Amino acid sequence: MTGIFAHALGADFAKLHPRMRERLDLSVADGVGMIGHGVMDRVWRGPAFTLPFLWLGSTRHILFPERGRNVPFVIENYPYVDSYGRETVSFVRTFEFPRRRRRFDAQMLCAGDRIVDYLGTHQHLAVDLHIAVRPDGGFRIRSGGFRVGARTPVPQALAGTAHVDEWFDEESGLFRIQVAVVNRRFGPLFGYRGSFAARYVRLDGGVSGAVKPLREKVLD
């Protein structure tokens, strides 16, 4: 167990469903990535006042304003070493809406005993993630406070909290995922739920720059 999630979860990593362990134990040392293909049963957004925020985010691959049902979906998880020498895992999600393709880009890495999630094409936002194992062997992530870049806190009144649940469905043989971003004052802002199948690929040729940010940030 050498990946960032094994490091963050410690002994609890062994409590994950075997398929979840396989999915999350991606490391540079092993040279294996994962591509998931599936369908989001529902992609939703909050009320009309969230539109300017979501439109702005879409220009940098952070959330988007489209909503729909049965939306084709791809997630790409590739481990690599960034320009600061940190082991990183890409979380690049692509949603194929009827008239537009949307991406939601993130890169996760370990900083001490926590996972930090950098969002966007230029790692505009950073957030600490709290990960725990669900009773069914899936995982649950809750985000902490958001920062602009790596250092400047986003006021709680403006920020949302991300709630992510993922688990393996034995009956269907698929991974199921549910995501919601909620503001404590204004309520639900954005989310999606659905399922995907995973396949694993060798990274002998390295990781494409298409799933890496255009600029990287570093923590103090």
Describe the structure.
- The chain has 220 residues and is mainly beta.
- Helix content is 10%, strand content 50%.
- It has helices spanning 4-9, 18-24, 51-58; strands at residues 32-45, 68-77, 79-81, 87-96, 101-111, 114-119, 125-133, 139-148, 152-153, 161-169, 174-183, 187-202.
- Strands 1-2-4-5-6-7-8-10-11-12 form a 10-stranded antiparallel barrel.
- The protein is globular, with a radius of gyration of 16 Å.
- It starts with a helix and ends in an 18-residue tail after the last strand.
- The model has no long low-confidence stretch (mean pLDDT 92).
Structure keywords:
220 residues, 3 helices, 50% strand, globular
Please tell me the overall pLDDT. Answer: 92
Series of secondary-structure elements, N-terminal to C-terminal? HHEHEEEEEEEEEEE
Radius of gyration: 16 Å
- Give the strand tally: 12
Structural class: mainly beta
Distance between the termini: 27 Å
Strand content: over 45%
